[in-house]
Amino acid sequence: MPGVETEITLQVDGVARRLTVDTRTTLLDALRERLGVTSPKKGCDHGQCGACTVLLNDRRMLTCLALAVAHDGATVTTADGLAEDGALHPVQQAFLDRDAYQCGYCTPGQICSAVGVLDEVARGWPSAVTPDVAAEPRLDHDEVAERMSGNLCRCAAYAHITPAVLDAGGAR
């Protein structure tokens, strides 16, 4: 049975992009295959590795699990779209300063997830390791490690990723 095609618009890294997609197309495939946006990576294609993480309407999202048609009109920010006026985003700079990458494959998803983590903490959202869910979460190693646990790194750069996120969040 042939798929049904529909036209959607995505605001990708500050640019409105109009495209026609099969209604079964994932947001990841729409970005990579249809729009040529290669920052989000196809890792597991099952939502288990985090390589495809972007900020969707300012919240982190696994694009391999999202249908593109469900996000018509959405704002998508990839790791490439975080820098402003030629200056790296604080998370990007912290990743460089802390050598928080190895092969780099997972790095764009790690960076987008880290930006999302810092926003979640700033909003006061608790995690599974927040000791008192009624209190503001404290940005510490355990909090960052728990929140970043959905992003895998085959090179095991975790020892550098968590401190980079802490640096970017102002915690030391």
Report, as a whole number of angstroms, the end-to-end distance.
56 Å
The residue-averaged pLDDT reads: 95
SS field, number of helical segments: 5
Integer-rounded radius of gyration = 16 Å
* CATH domain topology of the largest domain: DNA polymerase, domain 1
Structural domain count: 2
Strand content: 15-25%
What does this protein structure show overall?
29% of the residues lie in helices and 16% in strands. With 172 residues, the chain is α+β, with helices and mostly antiparallel strands. It has 2 domains: 5-81, Ubiquitin-like (UB roll) (Roll), CATH 3.10.20.30; 90-168, DNA polymerase, domain 1, CATH 1.10.150. It has a 5-stranded mixed beta sheet, sandwiched between helices. The longest helix has 16 residues, at 107-122. The N and C termini lie far apart (56 Å).
In short:
Helix 2 crosses helix 5. With 172 residues, the chain is an alpha+beta fold. It is built from 5 helices and 5 strands, in the order ββαβββαααα.
